[in-house]
Design brief:
Radius of gyration: 23 Å
Structural class: mainly alpha
Shape: globular
Strand content: under 5%
Helix content: over 70%
Largest sheet: none
Low-confidence stretches: 1-15
Distance between the termini: 37 Å
Number of helices: 18
Order of helices and strands: HHHHHHHHHHHHHHHHHH
Number of strands: 0
Length: 460
């Protein structure tokens, strides 16, 4: 009897470990958007001799925070819809709408089309014209609309093939580029921006916002929870722990790719004339570095291989985002049908994608500079409240202060108005001036809550 029980336990552990890897790689596939590949090499080129502090900052916001975001989502069975509402119901709905629009039709979906064009069309046909982008994006979004409008398993099947292909091709590129560029010197970078280890870390930290993965984690966490539950895992049998393990697997894979691609960019010498030409043509430096590296690794065939796979991977990502965002808005506004939301969001994405990749990325930066500090603060407050009895006012005051200071900081940074005191705040050099406000707001709110005998936040 004891022997049988031990054998059963061993099989259970083996099955559990297999499930962790399955969910971990599924999570990796969710975050592994082809658009994210363009940021690390560009950071590597710009950071020069301060590459390591810059890429470390990037990894924290590009990987560490999404990992924490997914884990925090498993604290409540129904995810962030419930957790955020415990801060305040109105705050929850506003933040979730803002996140859905950001990772949906306003920025992330148009970016998939623009990235596909710059990596799939520009290198192959040597064109970056507005008409070429218009024709490509029209065809691209007609396909996205069809796949999103009709319930189909085609996207899952294509994604299951394309994600491994993209991963294999990028890994091959990294290995080949390592041997090709390994003897090369580190590039000079941009000393005006990356002038010290501290400022480089801060710049990399903010650059990680552009992946949008930390805020996407809030939207995607329920998918991960559902996937783990489908394997028979419950809150009582280790839902929280398995979410952590799966997240760590995804984080390791993403970290390897981001750091390696950043290293490639850090060893690719690009002339000032080329950079100026790319700027003048509105072409993204990250896509240029990645396609150039692909040609170094695989010759002329490289740009075709990477271009086609990236374009198809972006297509499945865009379709998945259209579906999830449309379902979310249909859930909160049931009078408007899911298919109408698909139509509206596809049309908006098509229009915005025609601005070009550089414009889409620049347009997203102010929004992300506001959203990221708020989202990070909210996620960390939820995790803290799981272990420390926290009165609601502590969360509310902390989030309120972070929201105010983030808005003021963006207004100052974008040059819309000169607000001098921002530059005098602690951590402003690293673009993290919101952190002390989050901490002070929590402490003051905690004291007020205790004085008023507010009941601490509890989770189911």
């Amino acid at each position: 009897m004891i022997k049988y029980k031990l054998l059963l336990d061993a099989k259970g552990v083996k099955y559990m470990n297999k499930n962790i890897f399955v969910v971990g790689f599924m999570l990796f596939a969710i975050f592994f958007g082809a658009g994210n590949l363009i940021f690390p090499p560009a950071l590597g080129l710009s950071s020069g001799h301060f590459f390591w502090p810059a890429i470390f900052g990037f990894v924290i916001t590009g990987i560490g925070l999404p990992l924490i975001g997914v884990i925090a989502g498993s604290i409540e069975d129904k995810g962030y819809r419930v957790s955020l509402s415990k801060i305040h119901p109105v705050f929850a709905i506003i933040l979730l709408i803002a996140i859905s629009l950001t990772i949906g039709p306003l920025f992330a979906i148009p970016r998939t089309a623009a990235t596909s064009f710059e990596m799939g069309i520009t290198p192959i046909f040597d064109t970056n014209s507005s008409m070429a982008l218009f024709i490509f994006s029209l065809i691209y979004f007609v396909i996205v609309f069809y796949l999103s409008f009709n319930s189909s398993k085609m996207v899952d099947k294509v994604g299951a093939i394309l994600t491994p292909l993209l991963l294999i091709s990028i890994t091959a590129l990294i290995i080949k580029a390592f041997f090709t560029l390994g003897g090369g010197a580190t590039v000079e970078g941009d000393p005006a921006v990356y002038s010290s280890a501290g400022t480089s870390f801060g710049k990399g930290f903010v650059e990680g916002y552009l992946t949008m993965d930390a805020i996407a984690a809030i939207a995607f966490s329920l998918i991960v929870i559902t996937a783990i539950k489908s394997k028979g895992v419950t809150r009582e049998t280790g839902l929280f722990k398995q979410t952590i393990y799966a997240g760590v697997i995804a984080a390791i894979a993403l970290g390897f790719i981001y750091i390696s691609l950043g290293w490639i960019g850090n060893h690719m010498n690009v002339s000032a004339e080329t950079l100026k030409e790319l700027n003048d043509n509105g072409q993204n430096i990250g896509t240029y570095l990645l396609t150039t590296a692909a040609q170094l690794a695989f010759g002329e065939f490289g740009k075709y291989l990477i271009g086609i796979i990236v374009a198809l991977a972006c297509l499945t990502t865009a379709t998945g985002l259209i579906v999830s965002v449309s379902e979310f808005f249909h859930e909160i506004i049931p009078k408007i049908s899911y298919k109408w939301f698909v139509t509206i969001f596809t049309l908006i994405s098509f229009i915005l994608s025609n601005q070009g990749l550089t414009t889409v990325i620049k347009g997203s930066l102010p929004v992300l500079l506001v959203l990221y500090p708020i989202a990070i603060t909210a996620v960390l407050l939820i995790v803290l409240a799981k272990y420390v009895g926290t009165p609601p006012i502590a969360q509310q005051l902390s989030v309120a202060l972070v929201t105010i200071i983030s808005l003021i900081s963006v207004v100052n940074q974008m040059g819309w108005a000169k607000i001098g005191f921002i530059q005098q705040l602690p951590l402003s050099t690293y673009q993290m001036e919101w952190i002390p406000f989050a901490i002070v707001g929590f402490i003051i709110g905690f004291i007020i809550g205790k004085v008023k005998n507010q009941a601490p936040i509890t989770y189911s």
